[in-house]
Design goal:
mainly alpha; elongated
C-alpha cells in the first residue's frame, strides 16, 4: 500500500507540475486537452477496475500516461515554435521530410506594416441595411392581407369589347360585300384593256370609286371631272363606265346626258334644266329604295348652259337630303385642254423615259390641278365641288393600239404594216424629248378603218 500511495502521489505531483507549465505557456490546444482528459479518464477507470491488481501494474500505467502527456506537450510546443519562426519552414532539420500538419495562421509573426497591408487588401464587407420590422398588434398576431373582391364591372368591360369587335368585323364584311356588288375588279380590267394611254387617269378614277363605294352612307356625292384634249378617250371612258354600271345597278339608275343631243338650243336651257332636275330626283329616290348608288354621266360638259350648271350645282351641294348624297356625277369636257397640251409639250424633255404611266400621271395631276381649278372656278361654281383628273396627250404608239383594236372589232386582219401606215397619216406635234404626240388622238381612227 505504501508503494501505491507513493506512486499516486508522484503521479499527482507530476500532473500538477505539467498543468502549471501549461498555464505559464498560456495556450493549450483544445484537441490535446480533450485527448489528455480522455486518457486520464481511461487511466482512472482502468486503475479503479484494477484496484485489486498488483501495485507494479498500476504504477506502470500511471507512468505511461505521464510520458504520453509529456511527449504531446513537447510536440505541441515544438510546433508552436516552428510556426513562430516562419510557419514551420526554418525549424525542420536538414534532410527531414516536410511536415504535412495543417498550418494555423496567427498574428504573432506579422509586423504592423504587414498587418496594415493585409488589412487594406482584404475586401470590405458592405453593411447590410437592416430591414424594418413589421409590427403587428399584440392581440391579433401576424395576419394575412385581406383579399380584395374582384369587381364585376371588369366582366362587363370584356363583354363590351367583344360587342365592339363584332360590330367592327360586321362593318368590314358589309363594306366588302358592298364593294363586291359593283364589281370594281371587273371594271378595272375592262378599263385597262379598252382605254389606251390613260392608265394614270384610270387608276385615279378607280381610286375615287373604291373609296366612295366602300360604304353606303356619305356626307356628299362623288363628283369627278375629266378634262383633256379632243380624241384622248374621254367619251370612250364614259361609255365603258355606263355599260358596266348598267349591268350592275340596272338600266334605270344610269344616266348618260349629251348636252348637244338633249338640249341643243340655248333658248330651251331653262326647260332642259327643269327636266334634268326631275329625272335626277326620280332616279335618286328609286336608288334610295333599292339601296344602290346611281351614276350620272355628262358628256361634252363644255357646251352646258348656265341654267343646267346651276341646277347641277344645287344637286351636288352637301346640304341636300340623304338620297341626293348617295350619287356619282361624272363630267367629261375639254375645258382647259390648252393648258394640258402646253404643259406636256414643254415638259416632255424633263419627263424620264423609264417613268411609269402612273408616275407621269401623278406628276401631271400635281402640276395641272391648281391651274385647271383656277380656270374652271372662274367659269362656274360647280367645279369647286369636283375632283379634277386631267387626261394627257396620246403618243403614236397609243394611236397604233387604237387602230389595232378597231380593226379587230371590224373583222380586219391586224397587219402591222397596214396599221403603221394608217397611224402615219395622223397629224402629230413636233417630236419633243423622244415623244411624238398626236394632235387629234384616236378621233380619226374609226373613219379611216371604215374606208378600208
Amino acid at each position: 500500500m505504501s508503494d501505491q500511495d507513493s506512486s499516486s502521489t508522484s503521479a499527482s505531483q507530476t500532473e500538477e507540475e505539467l498543468e502549471e507549465e501549461l498555464e505559464m505557456d498560456g495556450e493549450v490546444n483544445g484537441e490535446v486537452n480533450g485527448e489528455v482528459e480522455g486518457e486520464q479518464e481511461e487511466d482512472n477507470d482502468r486503475s479503479s477496475e484494477r484496484s485489486a491488481a498488483p501495485s507494479l501494474s498500476s504504477f506502470s500505467s500511471s507512468l505511461r500516461a505521464v510520458i504520453r502527456i509529456k511527449q504531446k506537450y513537447q510536440a505541441m510546443k515544438k510546433r508552436r515554435q516552428e510556426l513562430a519562426l516562419g510557419l514551420g519552414g526554418a525549424g525542420n532539420p536538414t534532410g527531414a521530410a516536410p511536415r504535412t500538419s495543417p498550418k494555423i495562421f496567427t498574428f504573432d509573426g506579422l509586423t504592423p506594416i504587414a498587418y496594415s497591408t493585409l488589412a487594406a487588401a482584404a475586401p470590405q464587407r458592405k453593411k447590410r441595411k437592416r430591414r424594418k420590422r413589421v409590427l403587428f398588434p399584440n392581440s391579433g398576431g401576424c395576419r394575412a392581407p385581406p383579399k380584395q373582391e374582384q369587381s364585376r364591372a371588369k366582366y362587363c368591360l370584356y363583354l363590351l369589347f367583344a360587342i365592339v369587335f363584332m360590330q367592327v368585323y360586321n362593318a368590314i364584311e358589309n363594306l366588302d360585300d358592298h364593294v363586291l356588288r359593283y364589281d370594281l375588279e371587273g371594271l378595272e380590267k375592262t378599263l385597262r384593256r379598252e382605254v389606251f394611254g390613260q392608265q394614270g387617269a384610270v387608276e385615279g378614277l378607280l381610286s375615287h370609286l373604291k373609296d366612295y363605294l366602300s360604304t353606303y352612307v356619305h356626307n356628299k356625292p362623288l363628283v369627278v371631272s375629266l378634262h383633256g384634249p379632243s380624241g384622248v378617250g374621254k367619251s370612250h371612258l364614259g361609255r365603258l363606265l355606263a355599260g358596266h354600271f348598267r349591268s350592275v345597278v340596272g338600266e334605270t339608275l344610269v344616266l348618260q346626258y349629251y348636252v348637244l343631243h338633249h338640249c341643243p338650243q340655248e333658248a330651251n336651257a331653262l326647260h332642259c334644266a327643269s327636266d334634268l332636275s326631275a329625272i335626277i330626283s326620280e332616279m335618286v329616290e328609286r336608288a334610295e329604295e333599292e339601296e344602290k348608288i346611281p351614276l350620272f354621266i355628262f358628256d361634252e360638259a363644255e357646251h352646258m348652259h348656265d341654267e343646267i350648271l346651276d341646277v347641277l350645282s344645287q344637286l351636288v351641294a352637301s346640304k341636300q337630303s340623304n338620297e341626293y348624297l348617295n350619287a356619282i356625277y361624272l363630267f367629261l369636257s375639254n375645258l382647259g385642254h390648252a393648258h394640258i397640251t402646253k404643259h406636256m409639250l414643254h415638259n416632255s424633255s424633263s419627263i424620264s423615259m423609264g417613268m411609269s404611266a402612273s408616275g407621269r400621271h401623278s406628276n401631271l395631276v400635281k402640276e395641272l390641278t391648281p391651274i385647271l381649278r383656277n380656270t374652271l372656278e372662274k367659269l362656274h361654281i360647280l367645279w369647286t365641288e369636283a375632283d379634277i383628273l386631267p387626261l394627257g396627250l396620246l403618243e403614236k404608239g397609243h394611236v397604233m393600239e387604237c387602230f389595232l383594236d378597231e380593226m379587230t372589232r371590224e373583222g380586219f386582219y391586224p397587219d402591222h404594216t397596214n396599221i403603221e401606215r394608217l397611224a402615219g397619216e395622223i397629224e402629230y406635234y413636233p417630236t419633243v424629248g423622244g415623244h411624238e404626240y398626236s394632235q387629234t388622238g384616236c378621233k380619226q381612227v374609226v373613219a379611216k378603218v371604215n374606208l378600208l
